[in-house]
Amino acid sequence: MAGLAVSKKRKVAQFLNDQAPNGTSAKRNGKATINGKADWDEEQDYEQRARKGKKKSEKEGPQRLPIKTPEGRIIQVEADEDRLDQQAPGSNEEDASNDGELGDSDDGSEMQEIEPAKPKKSERQRLLEAKEELATLASSVNEEPEENYQQLRRIQELFDSETSLTIKKLILLTQVSIFRDIIPGYRIRPLTSEELAIKVTSDIKKLRNFEQSLVSSYKVYVDNLGRLSRTVGGQLCPIAISCTCTLLETVPHFNFRQELLKIVVERLSSRLIDDSFVKCRDTLEEFFRQDESGTGSLEAVRMIIKMLKAKDYFVNESVLNTFLSLRLLTELNVKASYDTIDEQAPKMKKKDRVPLTKKEKKARKELKAVDAQMREADAVVVYEEKERNQSETLKAVFLTYFRILKEKKPSLTGATLEGLARFAHLINVEFFSDIIGALRELVEDARKEAEGDEDEEEDDNSDSVQRERNLRREALLCIVSAFSLLADQANEAKGLVNIDLSFFTTYLYSVLLLLSLSPTIELSSKSLHLADPTSDETVEIPSSKVNKATEIEMLLRSLDVVFFKAPRGTGEISSARVAAFTKRISVAALQLPEKSCVTLLTSLQNLSKKHSRKVHPLFVSEDRVGDGTYDPFIDTPELSNALAGSAVYEHALLANHYSPKVREQSKLVLKSAASSR
C-alpha cells in the first residue's frame, strides 16, 4: 500500500514539473505532452477523422424498391452492378459520409439496416389464416373451458377489429358453436355479497371465475346479435338471426332468454316473408313444443301480444298460428277465458290438518327449502308452477283472439277462428256467449255479401278488405268453431250449454249452391292455376288463411260438425232439416268436379245411414199424402218442404255420370237409403 501511494505522488509531481514557468503548457507539434510523451487525449484525432465507407457495390442488401407481380405478390429486386458503376461521382462521398454517421463503432456494434415493408396478404390467405386461428381458439376452449375461457374475449376482439364480412361471419358461427358446447345445463345467477365474502376453495373459485366470465362474454355476444339482426338487408343479418335461433333451440334454459326471444319476435313483426322469417317462426313453434315448465312460453306469448298491439294486428297470420303449438293444448285440464280461470282443487281446511309441533314445523320448512334447491339444480319442473304458467298463457291467448274478433282484423280473422276451434275444450262456459256473438256477426257479414245487401257508400278500400278477408270461407270457419265449442263442452257442462246454433245451420244450407258453382272450390292459394284465356274476367283464387284448406274441405268439415258431432244439448235434428240438406246436397253434387262430387256423396251416404228413417221417404216411390210443394230456392231448410212429394231424382242423373267413381258412389247412396227403415 505504501508503494502505491508513492507512485501516485510521483505522477502528480512529474505533471507539475512539466508545466512552463509562465503557467502555460509546452507545445509539441500543437499537442500537449506530459514528460515528453504524447498527450493523453491523442485518440481525439482518430475520432474526428472521417470514416471510410464501403463502396455501393460492396454493400449488402437490395438497393431497389419492391415491385408487385401480376399474381399480387410483392417481391424485392436486387440492384445490378453495372447500374451501380454508372452512378454520379459524388455518390461515393455521400455514401461515405452517411456510412460514417451510421457506420460501425469501435465497440463492435453492427450497422442497423431498415427492413422492407411486409407484403400485403391476399384475401384468400387472410381467410385461411383466420380459419386456422379460429379453429385453434375454439378447440382450446372446448377442451378446457375452465382454463381457456379468456379466449372468448379474444374471439370477440377479433370480430370487433375485423373488416372482412366473410371473416366476421365465420367468427359469429364459431362463437355460437362454442357457446352451444360449453354452456352448462343450469342457469347462472349473480353472486351475492355474502357469498363473495365467504372464503372458498381454489376449485370453487375457479368455477366461479369461469361462470362469471362465461355470462359476461355471452351477454356481449347476444347484444351483438341483437344489433346485427336489426339491420334488415345487411349481409350479417341472416347469420345473426340463424345464430339466435340456434341458441334458442339448444340452450333455452340459460341466461338472456328474453333477449333471444325479443330478437325472434322483432323479426316476426315484419311483413317481409323470407328465409329469416320462416326460420324464426319455425324456431318459435319448436320452442313452444319443447318448453316443459311453461315459463318461456308465457314470456314469448306476452312478447307476441305486445308486438301485435304495436303493429295494430297487421302482421302475417302465421305468427298467430304459432299459438297452436303450445303444449297447453294437450296438457292443461282447466277451463279459462280471457279474464278468469276455473278454481283449482280446494285446499285442505285448517280443521282437517294434522297438528305439528314447532320442531316439526321447522324441520318441514328446512326440508322444503332443500327440496326447492335440489329441484332448481336438477331442473325439475314443478307441476303447480307449470299449470299456473299455462293458465296465464291461455288467458293471454283468449284475450288476443277475442280482441281480433271484436275489431274484425282482416288478416287474422281466419287464424283466430281456427285457433278457437282448437282451443274449444279449454274455454270456459261463461265465455261462450261473447264468442258466439262475435262468430254470428262474421256469418252475418258473409250472408250480406252473398245477398248483395251491402251499403253502396262503401269505398274501394273496404271492398278490397272484404275480398281479402274471403268472408265465405270465414263463415265456414265460424260454423266449425261454434259447433266445436259446444261439442267439446257439452259432456262437462251437464246441461248448462243450451245455445241455439240454428243460425249457423241456416247459413250452411244457403251457401251450398253457391259453393257448388264456385270455379275455385278445389283450389287454394298454393295451387297452380291459369286464368281462362277466352274469358275477360279474372278468377281470383281465395287466399287460404289456415292450413291452406280448400273450400270443399271446409264444407265437409262443416257438415261433419253439424250432423255427426253436434252436442246433445242442442237438441235432436228435425226430419225437415235432414231432408232439406239431403235434397240440396244431391243438387249440388251435379255441379261439382269429380273429386268433390265423390267426397260430397260419401258424406251424404253417412248422413243417410245415421238418419235413415228421416231420409227414407225421399228415396222410395210409395204413395203418401203431402202438404204443399217443394221450394228449392228458399234458404231456410225447415220452410223448403222437402218431404212434400219431392224425390231425389238427381241420383238418376248421377247414375249416368261420365266418371265411374261417381256412378258407383251414387249407387251406394241409393242402396244405403232404400235398405234402411
From TrEMBL:
Residues 92-113, 451-462 have a biased composition (Acidic residues). Residues 16-27 have a biased composition (Polar residues). Residues 115-125 have a biased composition (Basic and acidic residues). Its main location: nucleus. GO terms for biological process: DNA replication initiation; pre-replicative complex assembly involved in nuclear cell cycle DNA replication; ribosomal large subunit biogenesis; rRNA processing. It is found in: Nucleus, Nucleolus. Residues 1-125, 447-467 are annotated as: Disordered. GO terms for molecular function: chromatin binding. Keywords: Coiled coil, Nucleus, Ribosome biogenesis. The keyword Membrane does not apply. The keyword Ribosomal protein does not apply. Residues 475-664 form the CCAAT-binding factor domain. One of its GO terms (cellular component) is Noc2p-Noc3p complex. Belongs to the CBF/MAK21 family. This is Nucleolar complex-associated protein 3. It comes from Dactylellina haptotyla (strain CBS 200.50). The lineage of its organism: Eukaryota, Fungi, Dikarya, Ascomycota, Pezizomycotina.
